[in-house]
Structures are given as structure tokens and as C-alpha cells.
């Protein structure tokens, strides 16, 4: 646990100090191989708060309790997934798995489960797919997300 806290501190310092800090870079290179990408390297087009909603309880579209809201907050320091519905509230820290020109893929931090979240920009709008949401509603969901840019 101490090593994890130390690595987190070193990575945070590396983000703040940038490439000019040889000590931070040297220490970061000694770290154990990661299965995710450092948040500092996230392109600015993905920084912000994304929100959307989906029908949580099939056949209950007229009832507000049948809907769920999902938020994806991405910054240079953290990425967080929130899901709010009548049935549950879920909050997860995320790690970046892959960044492409038109998409970014996350996984839930510190989880043995392979819960991936894909956020992509397609035809000028943002779409999200999530293994976690698909498992909750028992079918594939494509959620249209709205971007609220953080300043």
C-alpha cells in the first residue's frame, strides 16, 4: 500500500512538473508496468464533464424512476464514473486503457472485473458504451452524452 501511495505521489508530481523534472521522470520509469495510461496525457478534447441518461427499467419510460443518469468527469488528475438511478448509486474511479483520435477507453480502477467504458465522438456527438450499464439492464446500451467543458 505504501508503494502504491508513493507511486501515486510521484506520478502526481510528474504531471505538475512536466518533462523538466528529471527526478520525477527517473522515478516514474522505475515504477511497475502499468495496465493503464497516465491521466496527464489525456488530450484536451476529452477534458470535461459528460452526462447522459438511459432507461434503467424497461417498459417504465413514463415513470421518472425508470430512468438513470450517468456522468463521466475527466480531468488531468482524475476520471470518475457516476450512475444515479432509483435502484442504485454507483461511483467509480477510472483508469485510461486506450486513447484514440475519436475515442477513449476506461476501466474501473482497483477492480478485478473487466468493466470497460468507451466514450467516442461520432458525427459531432459523444456516445458512451459501458459493460457495467449493459450488465445492469441486461442488454447493450448506447448512451448519447452531453459535454460540459471545465474551465
Write out the strand line-up for the largest beta sheet, numbering strands in chain order. Answer: 1-2-3-4-5-6-7-8
Might you state the CATH topology name of the largest domain?
Lipocalin
Proportion of β residues?
35-45%
N/C terminus separation: 34 Å
Along the chain, the helix and strand elements come as: HHEEEEEEEHE
CATH architecture name of the largest domain: Beta Barrel
Q: What's the main sheet like? A: 8 strands, antiparallel, barrel
- Whole-number average pLDDT? 78
**Total domains, how many?**
2
Shape: globular
Query: Residue ranges: pLDDT <50 for 5 or more in a row?
Result: 4-10, 17-34
Task: Find the structural class using helix and strand composition.
Answer: alpha+beta
Rg, rounded, reads 17 Å
The total beta strand count reads 8
Return the CATH class of the largest domain.
Answer: Mainly Beta
Name the helicity range: 10-25%
> Treating each run of at least 4 consecutive H or I residues as one helix, how many helices?
3
Signal peptide: 1-19
Keywords: Signal
What would your notes on this structure say?
- By secondary structure, this protein is of the alpha+beta class.
- The protein folds into two domains: 2-33; 44-148, Beta Barrel (Lipocalin).
- Helix content is 21%, strand content 39%.
- The chain has three helices and eight strands; from the N terminus they run ααβββββββαβ.
- The chain has helices at 2-17, 22-29, 131-137, and strands spanning 48-55, 67-74, 79-85, 89-99, 103-108, 116-122, 125-130, 143-148.
- Strands 1-2-3-4-5-6-7-8 form an eight-stranded antiparallel barrel.
- The radius of gyration is 17 Å and the shape is globular.
- The two termini are 34 Å apart.
- Residues 4-10 and 17-34 have low confidence and may be disordered.
- Keywords: Signal.
- Residues 1-19 form the signal peptide.
Amino acid at each position: 500500500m505504501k508503494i502504491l501511495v508513493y507511486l501515486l505521489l510521484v506520478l502526481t508530481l510528474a504531471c505538475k512538473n512536466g518533462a523538466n523534472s528529471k527526478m520525477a521522470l527517473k522515478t516514474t520509469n522505475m515504477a511497475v508496468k502499468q495496465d493503464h495510461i497516465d491521466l496527464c496525457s489525456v488530450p484536451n478534447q476529452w477534458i470535461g464533464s459528460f452526462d447522459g441518461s438511459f432507461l434503467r427499467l424497461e417498459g417504465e419510460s413514463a415513470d421518472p424512476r425508470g430512468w438513470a443518469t450517468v456522468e463521466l468527469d475527466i480531468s488531468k488528475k482524475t476520471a470518475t464514473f457516476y450512475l444515479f438511478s432509483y435502484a442504485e448509486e454507483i461511483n467509480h474511479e477510472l483508469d485510461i486503457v486506450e486513447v484514440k483520435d475519436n475515442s477513449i477507453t476506461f476501466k474501473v480502477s482497483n477492480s478485478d472485473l473487466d468493466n470497460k467504458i468507451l466514450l467516442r465522438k461520432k458525427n459531432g456527438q459523444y456516445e458512451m458504451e459501458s459493460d457495467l450499464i449493459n450488465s445492469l439492464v441486461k442488454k447493450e446500451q448506447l448512451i448519447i452524452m452531453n459535454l460540459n467543458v471545465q474551465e
